[in-house]
Design goal:
- This protein has a 9-stranded mixed sheet, with helices on both faces.
- It contains 10 helices and 9 strands.
- It has a single domain, classed as P-loop containing nucleotide triphosphate hydrolases (Rossmann fold, 3-Layer(aba) Sandwich).
- It is 29% helix and 18% strand.
- The N and C termini lie far apart (76 Å).
Length: 349
């Protein structure tokens, strides 16, 4: 079975036009961004990379992409640059490229939070992103915009609101230490090893309280991030926008540092129920004992043919098809007080 994130990025028909990747300080987000951007490049005719934090080379595929357009604003810092750039300047450059290109397109902006800090408020960035989202929705499927955003950014609730874009995919990185803490402290494993409703009822409030960062960077935390992580994937698809109906699906899968995988395959979570190698299964309790606890095939066959004393196989009334009504078989004990007479016969009723 293919990982859900891989299917989500390669599905041309059901691709949501907005992909939000949420991250925190306890998890590196660059490998996931590269994977998502490279996967979407294969699905669309054109691609636009807008960088405001890192250099573009961190995201560009090694083979290169002839349909890729790069707009680099990482060196343009307000107050320190000879050519200050605002959201309005970026919007002009972006829309100029979109007007010149045709067909499906992938747009990724590496840091909308940097634009918000440069602009000084949420409003101009929200207007820019709303106009950009409208342009992307007008392009052929599977056109989409990829936005990585920090969990504490004031732009996050704006991007996740239905008013911004009704259909979206929301991917959140979580540390494996966070999942291990939930399993050991609350005895609750991720689905399918536990009830899905019980896990999400516990997991979601802890995420909202930023417990993951406290576990990693707290007084008893490890103080560092692992290459492996858990991906929480929320897919919000519009079923009938006129009636305000939507379908929301939530799932978990692993991230091994370069691509998605089943969470049980992560080495950090192997002790929670993931597959173990044969040499890591631990000592065999039946080894080096003076008697044999295992059965051969012939012994198992003979054992299965032994008649059970409680099956009443000799009584045709209780064996066979079982259509006869059930009855209770009881052998009275010598101390039982069994009297067939009416115990109330002396009462004048």
């Amino acid at each position: 079975m293919s990982p859900r994130l891989s299917t989500l990025l390669s599905d041309d028909k059901k691709a949501a036009p907005l992909l939000v990747i949420q991250w925190t300080h306890d998890q590196p987000v660059l490998p996931l961004l590269r994977y998502a951007f490279h996967s979407c490049l294969k699905q669309t005719t054109h691609a636009l990379l807008i960088t405001a934090l890192h250099e573009p080379k961190l995201y560009i595929p090694s083979q290169g992409a002839h349909q890729l357009k790069v707009l680099n604003y990482a060196d343009l810092v307000p107050g320190y640059s000879d050519h200050p750039t605002t959201c309005y300047d970026i919007e002009r450059d972006v829309f100029e490229f979109l007007d010149q290109s045709q067909g499906s397109i992938t747009v990724m902006m590496d840091s909308v939070e940097t634009l918000r800090q440069d602009a000084g408020s949420v409003s101009p960035v929200f207007v820019f992103l709303s106009n950009l989202m409208e342009k992307i929705r007008s392009r052929p499927s599977p056109s989409r915009m990829i936005i990585p955003i920090f969990a504490g950014s004031p732009l996050l609730p704006v991007l996740l609101a239905p008013g911004f874009n009704y259909s979206l995919s929301h991917v959140t990185l979580h540390s494996t230490a966070f999942i291990t803490h939930i399993a050991k402290s609350y005895l609750t494993l991720p689905p399918p090893l536990s009830s899905s409703s019980n896990f999400w009822r516990l997991f979601i409030p802890m995420v909202e309280r930023h417990e993951g960062e406290k576990i990693v960077f707290g007084s008893e935390g490890e103080g560092g991030a692992s290459d492996e992580a858990m991906l929480e994937i929320v897919e919000q698809l519009a079923m009938d926008r006129s009636e305000g109906k939507k379908s929301v699906e939530r799932s978990l899968e692993g991230w091994n540092g370069s691509q998605p995988c089943e969470w049980t395959a992560l080495s950090d979570l192997r002790g929670l129920g993931g597959p173990r190698l044969s040499n890591e299964e631990g000592p065999d309790p039946t080894k080096n004992i003076s008697f044999n606890l295992s059965l051969t095939e012939e012994q198992q066959k003979s054992r299965s043919q032994v008649p059970l004393p409680y099956a009443h196989t000799s009584d045709p009334a209780t064996s066979g098809s079982g259509n006869r009504a059930s009855e209770i078989l009881y052998d009275p004990d010598s101390a039982d007080d069994i009297d067939d007479d009416d115990p109330d016969e002396d009462l004048d009723i």
